[in-house]
Amino acid sequence: MSDEVLRSVEGGVATITINRPERRNALSWQVIRDLRTEMAWARESSDVRVIVLTGAGDRAFCAGADLSGMAEGASFVDLHEGRGELADLFVDMWSCGKPTIARVRGYALAGGFGLALACDFVVASDDSQFGTPEIDVGLWPFMITVPLVRSMPPKKVLELMLTGRRVDAAEAERIGFVNRVVAADALDGAVAELASTLASKSPAIVKLGRDSFYAVWDAAAREALDLLHPMLTITTMTEDSHEGIAAFVEKRKPEWKGR
């Protein structure tokens, strides 16, 4: 691990921080690899129930790819393979089995925009800005298309991609790809509140339910129902499901075992 991606864990919440504030937390090949390593660690750690992804400082969550640094000394094949790492990171995030929260302060642009929207939830400060500026430098945001079209109406995605315009936090919340907007000084509290709520749920049921959610996202209705039906039966067979129902009947708080 480099010092450009940091990890802390408290109360079942792992906070993963891109630590390149001088570069507005831009994504280098090493940063992407380190993020994948951290996601794999968080997935396997029994100490982690929720993952928060953020950027160091108050200027940017992540301003996208480090265009100058990524091209240095790399062959065509290396560049092509490296770009696939970002797609793999998105898949890692969707399949990690634990809720993910993007804590956004400042810019979330290009690949950073996609990284935020690949999280389950986005909590943003009111001075945040989102956008896909690739069109203005002769590029196209291919790699972030999937997280964007999963987070807002497709024609809105196409508008942002074709115009390159910036979206402020208030519009982002109206469009629907940001879950909550708060004042900058309330951002940490809002993220902590959401993370604490998620961490208080059964990790077993969270994993089964979240995995099923992503499994049926792009499926046809009949195909989705064929998967969801047996998952309901499987869920009712878990220890945590039995405990949750017993706690409800007995009017007490459940004690989750994660099984």
How would you characterize the overall build of this protein?
With about 260 residues, the protein is of the alpha/beta class. The chain folds into two domains: about 5-200, Alpha-Beta Complex (2-enoyl-CoA Hydratase, Chain A, domain 1), CATH 3.90.226.10; about 205-250. It has eleven helices and ten strands. The strands form two sheets. The protein has a six-stranded mixed sheet with strand order 1-2-3-5-7-10, with helices on both faces. Helix 1 (about 30-45) links the parallel strand 2 (about 15-20) and strand 3. Helix 1 packs parallel to helix 3.
Strand content: 15-25%
Helix-strand sequence: EEHEEHHEEHEEHHEHEHHHH
Shape: globular
Query: Spans with pLDDT under 50 lasting ≥5 residues?
Result: none
**CATH fold annotation of the largest domain:** 2-enoyl-CoA Hydratase, Chain A, domain 1
Kindly report how far apart the N and C termini lie: 32 Å
Q: Based on helices, strands and strand pairing, what is the structural class?
A: alpha/beta
